[in-house]
Amino acid sequence: MTSRSALLVVDVQREYMEPEPFVTCDGDDLVATCGTLIDAARAAGVPVVYVRHLDDVPPADPTAAHICSEIAPRPGEPVVEKRFPSSFFRTDLEHTLTGLGVTTLYICGLATFGCLNATVMCALCMGYEVTVVHDAHGAQALGETSAAQVIVQFEGSWTAAGARLLRASEVRFARQI
Known about the structure:
Blueprint lengths: L4 E6 L3 H4 L12 H14 L4 E6 L25 E4 L10 H8 L3 E7 L4 H11 L3 E10 L8 H15 L2 E3 L11
Parallel strand pairs: 1-2, 1-4, 2-3, 4-5, 5-6
C-alpha cells in the first residue's frame, strides 16, 4: 500500500495567538510558518486537515475560537472539532484520515505541552508515521522554563517514541493526486 500524507494543523486559533502569542523554538511567527506549510501541501495535492479546540464554556468573543484568518481552511478542507487535548479522542479525525487514505502525518500547531503532545503521542500509538515540524509548533513559558526549553523537552519525548522532526524548510511533500 502506498503511503499517503496529510498536514494536520492543530489549534492555531485566535484565542491562543492574541494578545500574547505562543512562540516557536526560534521565537518566529508560528502562523506564517504554518501558512508556508499549508501552501506547500496544497500545491502538492496533500490534504490539509484542521483541528479546532472548543471549550465547554464559549469565550466571551465567539470569534476567539476561530482558526487564524491568515491560514483559514478553504472550502472542502476538513475541520475537526475537539473538546479534549488529543485531536483523536472523541472526534472524527481517525475516520477523516482513513477516508483520505492517510498513513503519514506532518503535524504543526499548538500547544507543544498540551494538545500537540497528546495528538502526536496518540498518532504514534495508532500506527501513523509522524513528522512534527520543529519550527511550526509553539508554547509559552511554564514558570521558570522558557518556551524554547519546553519545546526541546517535548521534542525529545516525541523522537524517543518514534516521531521525526523536520524544519519547515526541510519538508518536501510528495505530489499526491
